[in-house]
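In line with agreed milestones, the collection of sequences with tokenised folds has grown. One record among many is set out beneath this paragraph:
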Amino acid sequence: MPTKESDDAKVRLGSRFHRLLGATLVSAIGTGMHAAALPLLVLQSTSSPMALSFVVIAAEIPWVLLSLHAGVVVDRLDRRWVMVWADLGRFAVLVALAVLILTAQVNLVWLVLAAFLLGVGQVFFDLAAQSAIPDFVSRDPRSLATANGRIVAAESNGEDFVGPPLGSALFGVWNVLPFAGNALSFVASGLLIFSIRTGAKPKKTSKAPRTSVRSDIVEGIRWLFGNRTLRALATVSCLGNVAATAQFAMLALLAKEVLELPDFGFGLLLTATAAGATVGGLAAAAASKRFGPGTVMLAGKAGVGTAILVLGLVANVWVAAAMMMVTGALMTAEKVVVSTLRQQIVPDELLGRVLSSSRLVVMIGGPVGAGLGGVLANLFAVQVSYVTCGIFLILVTLVFYPVLNNRALASATDKSAR
């Protein structure tokens, strides 16, 4: 029998949130489409691995260069309009790219520039969408966790399930189709966001002179590192990203050399991860309510560590697929819990800046993990990198238990509520 609390949570999500959810899904499909089609377009003109690297770097570097400034924009402006302009900007980039393809004028320079601009749009859209969730649903933990879980599941389905195979399939028919379809997806996303009527109180305005961008950025960073719980969440997420990136960076090598899988089999491992991520996103709210956010996060971190450890110890395809699914589910559930806690603790007027500061800290773990995995695999064997990272994550869980257990998190959220 459903409880009143769960019924209320469903009501609180409402049509405004579901339009945000629909826009996130459509936008994620578009992102997945160009993530698959851009490398294929590069390979039509060159087989250079460095060319592919340039495009990937161009798509990722906006997070490093612009995330802090994007957080200021998200906090200063109407978050709906930030998302709309991000979608319109990406639409314009894709229209220009489609014209270059049709006129046979596209080259590596244009592709790198397009990847960079699309990455810029994604930074602004993702930060605004995550920060806007509390604008559309109640700030009680159940509603926030349910909303975050559905948003994460939509992102996973769009970027990993639907977008890449659709982009690849359309590219095989005609190389301009995925980019044209992608442009339309961003128009649809923008229209859905534009149709939302907030029904919420407007942002507070102050008669005091507007502070500088630099001081706003510093305020967000200070808020992040000045709060013990937020600081711990960012640090543990960064350390988790070290292990996760090492795992995924070496996955192709593990699949080919240890599991002896063809290219298609490697793709199925990624699909298993995406399937797990969908389950984890949808189940996170119920798990958090049943066991507590600290238990979900810490057990998830230890579980991911165990799954990575098993990948390094057991050379079996079915076990590997199961461990990838477990990894996807637990990592996504952790992400939902962290997002929900941050939204509960951080004041609305600071949420974009604290979120962008946290993202920047987490991203530091990516290149460290990729380098660590490569060094260990090169010096010893690819399995050694998995065993090392698995043990590392389990140790991280033990170290952060005193700060991130259920009692500590309840105390932190109670203080913020007061």
Observations:
- The first helix runs from residue 4 to 45.
